[in-house]
Amino acid sequence: MTQEWPDLTVLELLVGIDDLGSLGASARRIGMAQPNATRRLRGLETRLGLPLLDRNPRGSRLTPQGTVIAHWARELLADAERLLDAASALRGERESELGIGASMTVAEHLVPSWLGAFREQHPDVRVHLRVQNSTEVAAAVLAGEHDVGFIESPHVAKGLHTTVVGQDRLTVIVHPDHRWARLRRPLTVTELAAAPLVVREAGSGTRTTLDVALADFPRPAPLLELGSSAAVRTSVLAGVGPAVLSTLATAPWIASGVLHEVQVQDLDLRRTLRAVWRSPRTLGGPAGDLVNQARRSRLPQYLPEH
């Protein structure tokens, strides 16, 4: 039996719900009327045989199954975008190009503002951005696939030059109904390490930072392993379990009360955000200008200083 492929537009809708938190906002982002978006998503649910949305009078949000499908949809859309980039390159365009690799958190929350300022300085430079986890970004830079990369990992691969472009910190988040939200004391590191968590995939800067911080403690298998901060956050919102994510990816949701931040005693989860590149030691040209722009930029105003 031949499998009928879902169209990319309905996958964009699903990812948009993951990113923006509602079907209406997702439909507006791609310019589709909400009734049409609703029909398209119901059709996808029928085709997959899975409930993807939890519909209630207050709106719609992804089910745990929908969160997992959105994760894979994001991967598929990224592959489709790379296909279009490759086709464009094959058309023989010859303008100046800059290849960038960025970890998920950096790409989602910081790179757009950096590129906005960069384009004012270099309007004719064609920018290629590839979103990967920190380990993959470093490997691609070493292989010459990117001119510069931005990572969150505490470790920098041998053979790369690096400079600090900012700092953030990880925070423990739970659904407001989770038992940790009712604690009248900070969580202990032992309690955190002993709990099954929703985590990012191995190789991401977020996962590596957490694994290093808890290296001395026995830990159970993860509840769920996902490839984006948005997917992890949505899982926590759905009540799947606790997670540890960057404040860049959680601060607005914590401030609004839909997520609860859990304090952990004697655990430092601050981390350094870095630019990495191959020789020469001093990075010049458009890549150097982008790194300088990143170093000058301030973190989002909603991110608290620690």
Automatic annotation (TrEMBL):
It comes from the Bacteria. Residues 6-63 form the HTH lysR-type domain. Keywords: DNA-binding, Transcription, Transcription regulation. It holds the Pfam family LysR_substrate. PROSITE patterns: HTH_LYSR (PS50931). Residues 287-306 are annotated as: Disordered. Belongs to the LysR transcriptional regulatory family. PANTHER family: HTH-TYPE TRANSCRIPTIONAL REGULATOR, HTH-TYPE TRANSCRIPTIONAL REGULATOR CYSL. This is LysR family transcriptional regulator. It comes from Tomitella cavernea.
